Amino acid sequence: MKRHYFGTDGIRGKVGELPITPDFVLRLGYVAGKVLAGADQRLAAGSRPTVLIGKDTRVSGYMLEAALEAGLSAAGVDVMLAGPMPTPGVAYLTRALRLAAGVVISASHNPYYDNGIKFFSADGNKLPDEIERAIEADLERDLVCAPSEKLGKARRLDDAAGRYIEFCKSTFPAQFDLRGMKLVVDCAHGAAYDIAPHVFHELGADVVALGTQPNGFNINQDCGATAPNALIEAVRANHADLGIALDGDADRLQVVDAAGRLYNGDELLYALVVDRIATDGKVAGVVGTQMTNLAVEIALQRLGVAFERAAVGDRYVLERLRERGWQLGAEGSGHILSLDRHTTGDGIVSGLLVLAALKRSGSSLATILREVQLFPQKLINIRLHPENNWQTNHEVKATIADAERALGDTGRVLIRASGTEPVLRVMVEAAAATAASHYAEAIAEKVRAA
Q: What SUPFAM superfamilies does this protein map onto (predicted)?
């Protein structure tokens, strides 16, 4: 069965429009409670499952949290409320507290008027496709409220932030600290606003915090991992050693060095691979996505490290890592996976891994990455009319074929539908920026006209 509501990162949309409405989310909570409780093999007979709910700082989180809580309670599921909590924090707490599942109310890097729901299984992993399909299959069934004596109860997890802060700190090597370092940490007015600065400060850093005054509407607004100019300016103004930017739910990371140079997820993945080779002797392989810069793939090959591309979306990187038994993977957007540290991408933990790599090597990011010269990429997002038939259009196909023939082994063409937005993404990568722009614009023009 094809998934109708679930995309690559849960269910997402504009608040007030299906599926991000209180009635749908209540039903979703009810159905998910039933399905997830049934999938948890650790429950003793007759015991009641418990689900953790965390959220980011969007004003709509209050409404959706209440709807989810009501739906789960009607299904006979107890609820723990963590309040504002990074997505990876919910994954960690779900596993650490031996809960049936975790739920995050967040639209990640999207504007405040969007929101979404994503689930974690009892082991802190994103739900496999078959569980999401099972939830969708039951959404049309009647909601049958549990009898009063079996309704779920709700309570707040008061020490959620403290537990997660200690977990993050535990992933940083005990022989190092951050004393003497000045860090700018941009929390995007999101879920990590009262968590990330504490983590880096408690490890010894002098922290300059940005994006820590959420008002329900300013999440990701001109700040954070998706708008790093604010971080670049702050690093320079404060003469900081490094800048760390998270997105609204704190599962993405971008890093800025003292010179104001921005490093994306592709580059940070390479830096972590170099560190692992230095400490462990070898890295069997890593996973990127269809969007991973070709220069990184070439540089990894020079190191003798196998590289594979998964579909875009950190869930697919994770699936491929598990299939191969590897530990490191990433997306250029800043989702970095290190499965010996966490079950999911974690911006704070990834930042600590980068800092540990710098401590161990005694080098700067610029030095570590001197062999990696990223190929220019031109990305064009196209909002399509429902009648657009670009996939079967002969002119579109011919233009793509012309671009691929001209680029040969020195570039790539990638066209894909977004898993989180109703747009088509056209990406061309080439050794020269002019070539990337030329072919991307040519393809986009034909797609719009299709």
A: Phosphoglucomutase, C-terminal domain (SSF55957), Phosphoglucomutase, first 3 domains (SSF53738)
Q: How far is residue 185's CA from residue 314's CA, in Å, rounded to a whole number? A: 23
Ligand-binding annotation for 257, yes or no, is no
At what angle are helices 22-39 and 129-138 packed, to 10 degrees? 130
| Distance, C-alpha 365 to centroid of its chain | 22
The answer to whether the CB of 336 falls within 8 A of the CB of 265 is yes
70, 233 contact by CB (below 8 A): no
d(CA 33, CA 75): 6
**pTM > 0.85:** yes
Residues 262-310: pLDDT tens digits?
Answer: 999 999 999 999 999 999 999 999 999 999 999 999 999 999 999 999 9
Q: What integer pLDDT is reported at residue 46 of this predicted model? A: 62
Check residue 44 and give its pLDDT.
Answer: 56
251 is in an annotated binding site: yes
Domains and CATH numbers, the chain: 11-158 (3.40.120.10), 165-259 (3.40.120.10), 263-368 (3.40.120.10), 377-449 (3.30.310.50)
Question: Is the pLDDT assigned to residue 324 strictly greater than 70?
Answer: yes
Provide the annotated active-site residues: 108
Residue 116 pairs with which residues in a beta bridge? Answer: 12
User: What is the spatial distance between Cα 23 and Cα 64, in angstroms, rounded to a whole number?
Assistant: 9
Q: Which two tokens stand for residue 335?
A: 């989702």
CA distances (Å), origin 64, targets 53, 56, 179, 424: 10, 11, 41, 28
Short-list 90, 100, 83, CA closest to 10: 90
Give yes or no for a contact between 220 and 198, defined as CB atoms under 8 angstroms apart. Answer: no
Rounded to 5°, angle at Cα 268 from 300 and 278: 60
Structure tokens that stand for 286 in this block: 């890593």
DSSP three-state, residue 183: strand
Residue 114 assigned as binding residue: no
Collapsing DSSP states into helix, strand and coil, what is residue 151?
coil
pLDDT of residue 103: 97
DSSP letter for each residue of 334-396: S-EEETTT-SS--HHHHHHHHHHHHHHH---HHHHTTT--PPPEEEEEEEPPTT--GGG-HHH
pLDDT tens readout for residues 156-205: 999 999 999 999 999 999 999 999 999 999 999 999 999 999 999 999 99
80 alpha-carbon distance from chain centroid: 23
Rounded Cα–Cα distance for residues 75 and 86 (Å): 26
Rounded Cα distance, 410 and 407, in Å: 6
Specify the pLDDT at position 433: 95
Q: Residues 60-91: pLDDT tens digits?
A: 999 999 999 999 999 999 999 999 999 999 99
